[in-house]
Amino acid sequence: MNTQQPIAIVGAGIAGMAFAIAAAQHGYKVSLFERGEHITSMGAGVTLWPNAMWVLQRLRLAADILQAGGQPQAMRQFDQQGIQQGEFDISAVNRFCEHASVTILRRDLVRILASKVAQLGVKIHFNSNISAADIPALKQQYALVVGADGRMHSAVRAHLYPGQQLYRYQHFVNVIGISRSPSLGLDPVIADYRGDGERFGIVPINAELCFWAAGWHAKEVCHSTPEQWLTQLQQRFQHWATAIHAVLNTREKSSVKGIHVHDIDPLPYWHQDNVVLTGDAAHAPLPTSGQGACQALEDAWHLSLLVRSDGPLSERLAAFYQKRIDKTSLAQAIGRNVAAAIFSPMEQSAPATFSADAKQLSQLWMQGLSE
User: Fold this and answer.
1) Which CATH superfamily is domain 7-168+263-366 in?
2) Most buried among 107, 114, 173, 281, by the most CB within 10 A?
3) How remote is the C-alpha of 263 from its chain's centroid?
């Protein structure tokens, strides 16, 4: 594609904005279509592992991310009472990868991406409630249509897979939130508390700011208010470690949200004609993979490279799928395996799961990333 051929991106989340930045930095005219009336951020925070920071460096955003986020040096697993059961050395992975791991509030990540999108002059069309029926018209108007419109209700995925509901409920809930207080005194350590079928993770940004997620098995989807989610949190974790009570007592009230967690199976294709899926629309993993945002950012980088390469567009989109499918499918599988070990009612939580070798993990994360 030459830079005079316009690109449409459906969805102004992490995947959509990252690809818009990558394409616009190389001179492409990009239009973003967002169903909401403004940029929003689903979720409390994300951990950007070194593979994500590799991409963000090339998007010239790494300095902003580092300034807004924290840099954890370890991940520790505890039992319900706070007795340490295992530890994983994040700093060792960072050294092998030659990039930091960064924890950041999702709203700050989205703000940084949106600011760069605006700086590059990319037009965002808000209140664009695009459906699958609208995609053929976009295909005629734009040289490339990129579906970055999420795991649950992707219009672009519905166009490629008509009549198929591809997302799957995985029978556990995440209740997420943000806490801030000088009294927290947090170390740069991700804390993972485990009980039988339950989990509470605390991810620090700095000594007085963190995001957290509590999870437990839930057979069916049920709708609860933030107050009801909070009541369940307080009941389920009332006898757990004091660190959990500290973050619950200092929560930002508006940040508490409950999510019945879904993912999708690996798809046999992501493209058709000049339409392609990226991010969660293509390969939504469970949050237990730790790689959702990271793989969305990798998508943006690889797709931008292939768009700029030579050859028929259909061949380049096929190459994008072949380049990405193994790594994204592995992230999906890891997420499901970890979730099954924690939340399956037939399983007992293992006392320690941080058995990965730092060098092997770094090689896995950095696989496929090169200039």
Assistant:
1) FAD/NAD(P)-binding domain (3.50.50.60)
2) 281
3) 12
